[in-house]
Structure formats: C-alpha cells, structure tokens
TrEMBL record:
It comes from the Bacteria. Pfam families: adh_short_C2 (PF13561). SUPFAM superfamilies: NAD(P)-binding Rossmann-fold domains (SSF51735). This is NAD(P)-dependent dehydrogenase (Short-subunit alcohol dehydrogenase family). PANTHER family: DEHYDROGENASES, SHORT CHAIN, ESTRADIOL 17-BETA-DEHYDROGENASE 8-RELATED. The lineage of its organism: Bacteria, Bacillati, Actinomycetota, Actinomycetes, Mycobacteriales. Keywords: Oxidoreductase. GO terms for molecular function: oxidoreductase activity.
Amino acid sequence: MSEVTYDFTGKTAFVTGASSGMGLAAAQAFAEAGAAVALVDINQEQVENAAAELTGRGLKALAIQCDVTDENQVAAAVARTVEAFGSLDMAFNNAGIMLPPVDSADETAEAFDTIVAVNLRGVWAATKHELKQMRAQGSGAIVNCSSLGGLVGGDGRATYHATKHGIIGQTKSIALQYGPLGIRVNAVCPGTIDTPMVAQMAARGELDREAAAAREPLRRLGRPEEIAAAVLWLCSDGASYVTGVALPVDGGHVA
C-alpha cells in the first residue's frame, strides 16, 4: 500500500510531548512533509536530541523545553515558535501522563491535581496560546490528543478518563467558536499504542500486551506512526471540512 504524503512546505507545526512516542512520530512526520516543527517537551535532553536528529537530516526543527502545566512557559514556547518560523499553522497538543490505577475511594488529591494539570490544563493552555496566534492569522488547525479513554470508562483510572473526556468537550466547544474564523479544531482518540508509556505499563504489570492486542478487532497494538498519520490528515487540506470531531484510531476497539 502506498504511503500518503503531504506538502506542508512554508507551514509551521507545534507539537507537545514531542520527545517520544506519538508526539515524536508526529513531529517527524510534519518535518518530513516540509513543515518547520517546534518540538516541545518537559524533558530537555530528549527533545533536543529529537530535534537534532531532524535538523541533521536537513529538516526544519526547533527544540523547546516546556512544562505544559505552567501557562507562562506554554505562552513563551508558542511565541518562540512564531519568532523562529514566522507563523503557527498546525498544532498537536499531545503531552499527557497516566498514573498507576487506583481505587477511586483512595485516590489522593495530589494525584488528581497532577493528572488534571498535565492532561487537561496543559491542553487548555496550549490551545489558548495557539488560538491567539491563529486568530491573528485567520487560519490554523489544532489536533488535541484525547484517548480511547475519552470515549469509554476505565476501571481504576477515573481521573485519567475524566481528563480525556474533558479534552473532547474542550475540542468541540472551541471548534464551534473558531470555525467562523477559519480555524479547525479536532481530537484524536488513540487506542493502545506501542509507546514508551505503554511499555512502562507493561513493565509494571498493569498491561498484558498480548491480551491487549487480542482484544482489538485488528488483533495488534497501534503504532505511533499511525496516530501521526491521522494527525497530519486532520491538519491537511484533505480534512478542510472536518472540525469538532473526536476521531478514534484504536484498531476498532470502540466499534
């Protein structure tokens, strides 16, 4: 099967959680399609290495260390991106965390606040400052990373699922408000994807990879590149009439 390609020459992409997994795959795909890409991540060494790999191939990339729970850092990251590349045309707000499962009656307020700060507030802050620039331009496409957990519940992970449901609510509401301004806002809902986060879950005994694959209609885990492909499509002219959707990329799980 031939690979779908895009030409994003002259456009700028902004990707959070870009040092590994789905964020890295998306950043690489944007760069390979000709976009200038800001790779944004809390892990400075990893994100600098990721950007260096891209620039070493002659692609346009900028590493930005940023904690998405700090709105000032997010605002500065967006401003630095625009200063470096001149615009902000596409964004993938992917940064997120998952803590070990817990009985909801025993979850601490600290754990709740930590998950909400990264997964929900982080997406809020990134979207807010991306919108400021896109509103000024009169154009742009944003993709927020929700999850299969934004569409269904999950035993022991109520707060994680609450944040991922919340991202879909944010996405739909902002899509309604900004559609008339020429800005599209969508979400992707990945299923179980073979990322470092999933590897850590498997190592802790929280996930049986073979059993998880067997539950999916496609009988395998997803690949980060498959999420990146959905993100690029949602940011492309091919999705020019698509906004406010929560797109499952989950091997058929929610079917």
